[in-house]
Fold each of these.
Amino acid sequence: MTFDAVALEIGTVRLADLQATGVRDDEVAVVLLTDGGNEHRAIVSTTDKASGRGVHRAMRCPRCGKPAGVLRHHEGVLQCARCWPHRTSQQRQSNLAWWRRDGGRQTDQLLRLALGRHRPGRLEKMQALADELVLADEQRLSTLLPHIGTALDGGVPVMADVESVLAIGVQEP
Ligand SMILES: [Zn+2]
């Protein structure tokens, strides 16, 4: 079986994935990666959806048949938010330590910007988030270095500062 569209986000098919292919058929063969890391192939139908003053294309939920802009893989089937209410990464993870302390929020925002539409200032926001993540990593590393030195008990030379560690990181192939 061949496919027409590849979904970029794990477990999720967005209308933009279908539109990006340029395929204008009423049925599009889609392949995506599921949360479990398996490949899922499906035929996604499109339909017209009345919206505001006009009509636009939407995917048809394989489960309920209603129009949807996003379909998510759950229990072996793609389904819309009405059939399977989905919580965002922020809703699921904002209570976790890594979200607050280790850049979870910035990572999530960066991913959503990367997958989203191109809007003015998007690249600048992505750069700022990436800078924030790198800076926080460097700060964590500089906090850890003395502990690493203590743990190794002087038996192995330990880099004295973050710049030395980063320089070695850059030299690696
Ligand atoms: Zn549905």
Amino acid sequence: MLIRLLLASALLASWAAPARAISLSARTDRLIDRLEQLGVVIDRLERCGPGAERAAYNMGVNRLCLSQGLRDQPGLQLDVLTHEAIHVVQDCLDGLETPSSSTISLMLQAQGGFSPAQVDRFLTHHLDRSTAAHVLTVTQSLGPLQRQREVEAYALQSQAGMVESLLARHC
Ligand SMILES: [Ca+2]
């Protein structure tokens, strides 16, 4: 199982990028630049939804909202942006220009030859217990595909380098 995890990580990660050498806000700026290059419009608003959401991505119009308030919390800001960037990757997997999206799980199965159970173990490996409980709560009313998209975004939201690599490969 460990070898499979490493293989999945190698498939997703960019080992060449010395990510830690760069500041959190510089990494956020770089990710924003990358998304803008793809044609994603970034809106910096006070709030991103009726429930004062910190961020949102609309795959129909390729607009990503990031709350202004996050500027004071660079670590959280990068995680939140990375979470939304994973939704952009999922959008790209079904064509960025279309209003539909796919999942990283289906991509790993199709392109990496992984079984659904192996992909689940890989994602669970990156998801800490408290986050996993939170994801189950916030996705309770969602259908299986939408829930899977959220599981992937929560599991990989602290993996900015991996997500940059996924954007480069699939968008
Ligand atoms: Ca789209």
